[in-house]
Amino acid sequence: MSSTTHICKSCATEFTGSFCNQCGEKVLTKKDKSFQSILNSVLLTVTFTDSKFIRTLWQVLRNPGTVARDFSAGKRVKNISPMSLFFVLNLFYFFFPVIQLFNASLTTQLLSPLSPFYKTLIAAKAVSMGVDIKAFAMLYNLKTATLAKLMVMVFVVLSSLPLNVLYWKKNKYFMDHVGFAVELAAFNLFVNAIVLTLIVRMAGLGTYLDEITLTVIFITTNLYFVLRASFVFYHERGWQLIVKSLVLILFLKVALEAYRSILFFVTLFML
Questions:
Q1: Pseudo-torsion of CA 241, 182, 197, 215, nearest 10°?
Q2: How does pLDDT run across 141-191, given as a tens digit for each residue?
Q3: Rounded to whole angstroms, how far apart are CA atoms 244 and 240?
Q4: Any idea what DSSP says for residue 191?
Q5: E strand intervals along 118-216
């Protein structure tokens, strides 16, 4: 056990060793920021979810960026990790019929700029399967709906890449940026998939929810998150906060299109 004196990140108590004797906070090391360490915490959370889940989710909604910031700084006693929160919410997303935020039907895919190329591949695949386009669309939509739920993490990684460029001067680890993107994805799963589904069904607004409406809701809610979270996590201020937040929203749209392209090719391969 180390004899080095530490100041606890959570309660400011001075202590020696690896754990705070006041609140139990662990001294953060480089190993704790590895993917394996984060995965272990996810497995523990899924197995032993308690009141920390509710408290962490409330923090994400009320003070976006706080959970990722505290986790990155080593404050890990009060809340679960962003990755753990994401996987718990993704279980709801996977098993329950909520709005398919990260899904893209064949009709949606054909609105892509790559539509001419997609149509050629679709025609060839339909011929090889011996079905017409209508039957192919039905088979495609069933398969892609399941794959989309399994591949949400691909979107998370893609959306974290611009953060490495926009905030490269902030001296953050790659996994810190991923933590920010994971918190953003968890926010979207809860607000734009689970909560929005409940509102739409309870108020009977299903007929009004088209692609344009979803896009407006997505941009508005994500702008709220990005503005507040960038202020907290990256300590960005003033006009740079506004400009970088708007740029990040644009990059999120690009990441979503890239994710949908990957989803398209994976779905074709799996049919």
A1: 40
A2: 999 988 988 888 899 999 999 998 888 888 888 888 999 999 999 999 999
A3: 6
A4: I
A5: none
Residue 16: strand pairing partners? 5
Which is nearest to 175 in space by CA: 30, 67, 53, 55? 30
Residues 18, 21, 24, 27: what is their CA dihedral angle, to the nearest 10 degrees? Answer: -30
DSSP label of 78 = S
Arithmetic mean of pLDDT, 33-48: 58
Helix axes 152-166, 133-150, angle to 10 degrees: 60
Contact 55, 5 (CB under 8 A): no
Residue 55: left (phi > 0), alpha (psi -120 to 50), or beta? Answer: alpha
Contact criterion met (CB below 8 Å) for 67 and 59: yes
Tell me the CA end-to-end span of the chain in Å, nearest whole number: 54
Between CA 30 and CA 242 the distance in angstroms is 32
Q: Where are the domains of the chain?
A: 1-29, 34-270
Tell me whether residue 248 is exposed, middle or buried, using C-beta atoms within 10 angstroms of its C-beta: 0 to 12, 13 to 18, 19 or more: buried
Q: Any idea what DSSP says for residue 72?
A: H
Mean predicted confidence (pLDDT) in 238-243: 92
- Global model pTM greater than 0.85: no
